[in-house]
Design goal:
By secondary structure, the chain is of the alpha+beta class. It has 2 domains: about 100 residues, 60s Ribosomal Protein L30, Chain: A; about 270 residues, no CATH class. Helices cover about 50% and strands about 10% of the residues. The chain is built from 16 helices and 7 strands. The strands form 2 sheets. Strands 3-2-4-5-6 form a 5-stranded mixed β-sheet. Strands 1-7 form a two-stranded antiparallel ribbon. Helix 7 crosses helix 9, helix 7 packs across helix 10 and helix 9 crosses helix 10. The N and C termini lie far apart (about 40 Å). Pfam families: SDH_alpha, SDH_beta. It is an enzyme of class 4 (lyase). This is L-serine ammonia-lyase.
Amino acid sequence: MESLRELFKIGKGPSSSHTMGPERAARIIKKRFGEDAEYVVDLYGSLSMTGKGHLTDYIIHETLGENCQVNFCEETLPFHPNGMVFHIYQDGELKDDITAYSVGGGSIIWEGEDDFSMSRKNVYREKNLKEILETLDRNAYSFYDYVMEHENALFVDYLYEILDTMFDSVERGLKREGTIPGKLQLPRVAKQMYTQAINLPAGSERETLILSSYAYAVAEENASGQTIVTAPTCGSSGVLPAILYYCYKQLNVEKPRLIKALAVAGVFGNVIKNNASISGADAGCQAEIGSACAMGAALYAWILGLNNSLIEYAAEMGLEHNLGLTCDPVGGYVQIPCIERNGYAALRAIDCAIYAKNLGYVRKNKVSFDAVVNVMKNTGHDLNKAYKETSLGGLALEFDL
């Protein structure tokens, strides 16, 4: 499996697969062929069907410059729903055709073994959670010990940068008012939600609204094209920051401990990415919000001081109970139902950790995390394409834009 640096990325929303990935691919293409080349970019599958709402064409134009034409094609390329073909011309002559796939979380896979292809360096030997747990037992490791043995010496500094960026996105989102860009004209509500929450008496409703306001704040920033962290994607970028900021502000958990919890969450996200998918276009929203919920559950279970087995139990519940979740963004925007789902998933992640804490010592969980990851993968393959980030079904059909 790859470094957690490839899971947690800093970038601009609204979509890691539809905005960050294409931008990354276009930047690499431009570096190779230069400013003077002319580019025609064909978008396929989900990139074509929801590209307008996700700003795919906009970001490609911004990256490649004026000598660029973007086409939306009806077909889907065979390897992945998020396919794009770059046609490069110099002096009116076609020089190359290059195919790339945006596979989720801002990651790109190139078709063929081109000399500028991004290397996918594996730093973790283990392929799934079963193998990881065996390594932990054999060495008497925690999940954090495991991460630190494999990542480089600068990784802790990187996690602090990730945490600070997450916190900044929460704080920015809590201050902003107005309308989120796009045809939906959706008002921002994070600031209002937080104001309502802090004026409530102490209790569960107050805490629910505070945590939710943090998730909404980041999700609204993402939907507005602002800087966030993929955790593991842009569409689910509000879940982990909400839990971390809640622990920091409401529970007084210090940053060094939060850094460790973030690394633990990354292990579970990495397993999902390696064995299934974190792409809504590939496997539905279960791959994005479901993955984030599982990661958040593991994170909070670590904060609660649970052992490795119970951390797995919490993460397993977080993914299991999002199985089959469809990706049906209204108008192709990462707004409805995406923003609300971030708040909901943050709440459920904490519930999963509390369940694991109180039930795990009574009855051993019979469902492994790896089993649920495999089920999620199979479920994603079985989902009709209308429910995989195409805006052809579900809630997307209920709105006439």
